[in-house]
């Protein structure tokens, strides 16, 4: 199976490398990032997609995805599948799928969870929207790049799952950080706090797997000076996507809205840009009230 890979950044680079390492023929294009080992560099996106059976995109946002889709869809081989793995708004995912389908192509939105570590190790989780046939075509590639692929429904369903998941993540991280800061003020030892909450009803991935308190719980970015990891501005991007989706769908998401506001202030006014999203804990330590 010939594969084209458009967007070879922090995530796309290692994903494309894993496909090539598994023996697939991969042609990649990125105007800024180099092609990783085993991936043949193309000089344009249209050159990369010519003759490919699956085209994977891993791009910064929905506007760029729409631009790239306009360029590559007419150049793709009949019956090929366009599989976008970027995190983008549901509307862009659906618009690109419709454009591809109108041109006789298959289309999937397949955002990922697992970060750059999961991309490098080939242990990503894919949340996938699109047809059964397109999912079946790309499934062997999901198995190389990840450990799990959930077919969530039709076009946009993968992005819907991704932004709902990350809205929960943003909210639970803030709740975990503010609870640690409260525990500090109440004189409770952080290790004791972790021991109780991680095995009680307040547990979550934010507490148990990615504890924001340094020296407590499993190793996490908190133990590395809050170097990302998952940068606060990327969390803000995802929370904005979930709020945009909530507005479009007329859904009531007050906790998601507040989380988006807190991360916006953190990133834009409180020095959070470039820090891990769990650095909300030192933010709560230094702010008694907000
Ligand atoms: P990145 O900025 O490292 O990579 C994006 C790449 O796209 C860049 O190399 C850029 O040069 C390239 N690009 C931009 N315009 C292009 C074009 N017109 N044609 C071809 N390439 C183009 O970002 P990343 O961390 O790899 O993230 C990619 C996507 O994955 C984003 O949507 C992000 O939200 C999502 N994501 C990231 C993580 C993470 O931990 N980094 C985790 C899950 C999901």
Describe the fold and architecture.
The protein has helices at 12-21, 45-49, 62-72, 90-102, 115-121, 132-145, 157-185, 190-197, 205-208, 232-249, 254-269, 280-286, and strands spanning 2-6, 25-29, 40-41, 54-57, 81-84, 106-109, 112-113, 124-130, 146-153. It is of the alpha/beta class and 290 residues long. Strands 1, 2, 3, 4, 5, 6, 7, 8 and 9 form a nine-stranded mixed β-sheet that branches. The longest helix is centred in the middle third of the chain and has 29 residues, at 157-185. The protein starts with a strand and ends with a helix. The structure holds nicotinamide-adenine-dinucleotide. Residues 6-12, 29-33, 45, 58-60, 64, 68, 86-87, 112, 115-116, 230, 234 line the site of nicotinamide-adenine-dinucleotide. Belongs to the HIBADH-related family. This is 3-hydroxyisobutyrate dehydrogenase. Residues 156-281 form the 3-hydroxyisobutyrate dehydrogenase-like NAD-binding domain.
Summarize the structure.
With 290 residues, the chain is α/β, with parallel strands linked by helices. Strands 1, 2, 3, 4, 5, 6, 7, 8 and 9 form a nine-stranded mixed beta sheet that branches. It has helices spanning 12-21, 45-49, 62-72, 90-102, 115-121, 132-145, 157-185, 190-197, 205-208, 232-249, 254-269, 280-286, and strands at residues 2-6, 25-29, 40-41, 54-57, 81-84, 106-109, 112-113, 124-130, 146-153.
Fraction in beta strands: 5-15%
Annotation field: number of helices: 12
Structural class comes to alpha/beta
The span between the termini is 55 Å
Question: Which ligands does the model contain, each kind named once?
Answer: nicotinamide-adenine-dinucleotide
- Helix % is 40-55%
CA radius of gyration: 20 Å
Low-confidence stretches: none
Principal-axis shape: elongated
SS elements, strand count: 9
Largest sheet: 9 strands, mixed
Mean pLDDT: 96
What is the string of SSEs from the N terminus onward?
EHEEHEHEHEEHEHEHHHHHH
């Amino acid at each position: 199976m010939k594969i084209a890979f458009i967007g070879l950044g922090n995530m796309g680079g290692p994903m494309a490398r894993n496909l090539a390492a598994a023996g697939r023929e991969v042609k990649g294009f990125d105007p800024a990032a180099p092609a990783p080992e085993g991936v043949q560099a193309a000089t344009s996106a249209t050159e990369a997609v010519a003759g490919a059976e699956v085209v994977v995109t891993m791009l910064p946002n929905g506007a760029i995805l729409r631009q790239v889709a306009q360029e590559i869809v007419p150049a793709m081989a009949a019956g090929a599948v366009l599989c976008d793995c970027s995190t983008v708004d549901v509307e862009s995912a659906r618009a690109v799928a419709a454009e591809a389908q109108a041109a006789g192509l298959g289309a999937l939105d397949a955002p990922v969870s697992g970060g750059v570590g999961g991309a490098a190790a080939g242990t990503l989780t894919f949340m996938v929207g699109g047809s059964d046939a397109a999912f079946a075509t790309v499934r062997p590639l999901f198995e190389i790049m990840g450990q799990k692929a959930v077919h969530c429904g039709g076009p946009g369903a993968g992005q819907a799952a991704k932004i709902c998941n990350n809205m929960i993540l943003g909210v639970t991280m803030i709740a975990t950080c503010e609870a640690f800061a409260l525990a500090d003020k109440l004189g409770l030892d952080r290790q004791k706090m972790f021991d109780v909450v991680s095995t009680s009803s307040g547990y979550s991935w934010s507490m148990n797997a990615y504890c924001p308190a340094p020296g407590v719980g499993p190793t996490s970015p908190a133990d590395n000076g809050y170097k990302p990891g998952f940068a606060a501005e990327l969390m803000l991007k995802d929370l904005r996507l979930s709020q945009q989706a909530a507005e479009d769908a007329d859904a009531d998401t007050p906790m998601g809205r507040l989380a988006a506001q807190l991360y916006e202030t953190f990133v834009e006014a409180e020095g959070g840009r470039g820090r891990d999203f769990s650095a909300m804990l030192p933010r709560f330590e230094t702010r008694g009230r907000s």
